[in-house]
Amino acid sequence: EPEVTQTPSHQVTQMGQEVILRCVPISNHLYFYWYRQILGQKVEFLVSFYNNEISEKSEIFDDQFSVERPDGSNFTLKIRSTKLEDSAMYFCASRPGRPGSNQPQHFGDGTRLSIL
Amino acid sequence: GQNIDQPTEMTATEGAIVQINCTYQTSGFNGLFWYQQHAGEAPTFLSYNVLDGLEEKGRFSSFLSRSKGYSYLLLKELQMKDSASYLCAVKSSIKAAGNKLTFGGGTRVLVKP
After folding, report:
1. Separation CA B70–CA A16 (nearest Å)
2. DSSP per-residue codes, A40-60
3. Distance, in angstroms, between A38 CA and closest chain B CA?
């Protein structure tokens, strides 16, 4: 069964450094998402992406965050200048279909980001 | 605002039935999803409700009442491998292309022998 893949599985970075988290969504999917989960807390929406542009973003997704689909397969999340509070598990998700469709979002295994 | 409430933790015996309740108050509603999440792993899709009523998928069933802002996930014939967190998530979006999921805090289910 096709799956969403994320790399790396664990990223350790010094505070203030830039980090890029990578995702390969399922190949025929059209909608892409990033979520994060701070240890012991709920999964939080960051951003959704469709047709090569951001569809919606949360308050968490400030100017330090950006997303890109540089080619036909990868979907990246960049944090420009990391802060201690960015330490979390970051999940990429994708889904097929039209807006409002009932198909579920499929999640990758996540990247655990640790900021020192 | 968005508010999704579910119990923090439940304990049940192998072979038994457990019902996990979820209540929601959200600014938009396009359906409710249940996901299973084992510790340190990705959420995996279990079921989806957009209309009132019961959806059954094998040992798992999910119920929705939109007028009450209420859903439950029913796990039957519990197995040890069902020990996990169960996440209630509402699909809501201001923009049609967004369809973001807003998650509850999750219910940790511990299955005992």
Report:
1. 43
2. TS-EEEEEEEETTEEEEE-TT
3. 11
What pLDDT, in 10s, does the model give residues A49-72? 988 999 999 999 999 999 999 887
Using the beta-carbon criterion (under 8 Å), do B42 and A108 form an inter-chain contact?
Answer: yes
Q: Which of A67, A78, A7 is nearest to A33 (CA)?
A: A67
Cβ-contact B34, B26 below 8 angstroms: no
Partner B contacted by A31 (CB < 8 A): yes
Closest residue to A99, CB basis, from B45, B96, B101: B96
Instruction: Report residue B96's pLDDT band, with 50, 70 and 90 as the boundaries.
Output: low
Tokens of A104: 């579920």
DSSP B40-108: TS--EEEEEESSSEEEEETTEEEEEETTTTEEEEEE-S--GGG-EEEEEEEEE-SSTTT-EEEE---EE
Q: What is the mean pLDDT of chain B?
A: 92
- Model pLDDT, residue B99: 78
Which of A11, A13, A31 has its CA nearest to residue A21? A11
Over the stretch B33-59, which tens digit does the pLDDT of each residue have? 999 999 888 999 999 999 999 999 899
Confidence bin at B26 (pLDDT 50/70/90): confident
> In angstroms, rounded to a whole number, what is the distance separating the alpha carbons of residues A102 and A97?
8
How far is A83 from A52, CA to CA, in rounded Å?
A: 27
* Alpha carbon distance, N-terminus to C-terminus of chain B: 41
CA A46 to chain CA mean position, Å: 7
